[in-house]
Design goal:
Elements (H helix, E strand, L loop, with lengths): L1 E6 L2 E7 L6 H18 L7 H10 L4 H5 L4 H16 L16 H18 L5 E5 L2 E5 L9 E5 L8 E6 L5 E6 L20 E8 L2 H13 L4 H7 L3 E7 L4 E3 L10
Antiparallel strand pairs: 1-2, 2-3, 3-4, 4-7, 5-6, 7-8, 8-9, 9-10
Length: 257
């Protein structure tokens, strides 16, 4: 069974292969994504992150801004700080305008948590996707490895230029400018338009790892793929503005020629 809903401004798709699939499982996963959207969306005036930014913009002290944070907000801020340190400052939830935006990490975090909901319910074979970022478990309906297409960033007809086959419990995320325009920034150089690389796909041991490092590595420009190469349990595939692709050494194992 497969169902799709528009949540967080993007299609969220849940496919469950197991015979135990039922509407209650789908509802539980979609409700979780709605919860995350209500808490972390910077487009919703009623979200917790908007309330935090409003306090910050008013110049309130640190205790007032962060003192009443929910448990999940604290977790995401802590993970964001951890990711900032690991990426040497290239991942940063503080935007050029000075507000907080956790979107570079929270989508992968939400997919990962939603996948764990299914696992705790005994589901073994499934795929959860939100806006092109994907977590898989087990096998697809044909009993084969889940296959994911990497889109040609220069072709608006959604042409697939590479197909990869993920292992059990792995995740894949792509950062780029070809769909939403330039929404990622270089925290170390606000004048950097990040035009050298147009697409960076990262496969990780889970979608949270893939997503957060795809964001940070993309902000590094041409050096991003080398950062991914240096990290254990991460593989990457980058496409530059000239259409030249560069992949990490271990990425080939995901491709069936």
């Amino acid at each position: 069974m497969k169902q799709v809903q528009i949540i967080m401004g993007t299609p969220v798709a849940v496919e469950i292969v197991d015979r135990e699939a039922n509407q209650k499982l789908f509802d539980e996963v979609f409700d979780y994504f709605k919860y995350v959207d209500e808490k972390f969306s910077t487009y919703k005036d009623t979200s917790e992150i908007s309330a935090i930014n409003n306090k910050k913009n008013k110049g309130e002290n640190t205790q007032n801004i962060f003192g009443g944070m929910s448990k999940d907000m604290k977790v995401v801020f802590e993970l964001s700080l951890e990711t900032k340190k690991i990426t040497n400052g290239y991942f940063d939830i503080i935007t050029p305008s000075g507000s907080y935006d956790t979107s570079g990490l929270v989508k992968g975090w939400a997919i990962f948590n939603a996948s764990n909901i299914l696992k705790t319910r005994g589901v073994k074979n499934f795929c959860v996707e939100a806006g092109g970022d994907i977590q898989v478990s087990g096998r697809n309906e044909k009993g084969e490895a889940w296959s994911i297409g990497i889109q040609n960033p220069f072709n608006k007809k959604r042409e697939i230029i590479k197909k990869v086959y993920l292992g059990n419990n792995e995740g894949i995320a792509t950062s780029g400018t070809y769909v939403r325009g330039c929404h990622i920034y270089n925290p170390k150089d606000k004048n950097d338009k990040l035009e050298e690389v147009v697409s960076l796909t990262v496969i990780g041991s889970n979608i949270f790892e893939a997503d957060r490092y795809a964001t940070g590595a993309f902000a590094m420009g041409q050096n991003g793929i080398f950062f991914i190469e240096s990290k254990e349990n991460l593989e990457g595939y980058a496409i530059d503005k000239n259409g030249v692709a560069t992949m990490t050494i271990g990425f080939k194992k995901y491709i069936k020629e």
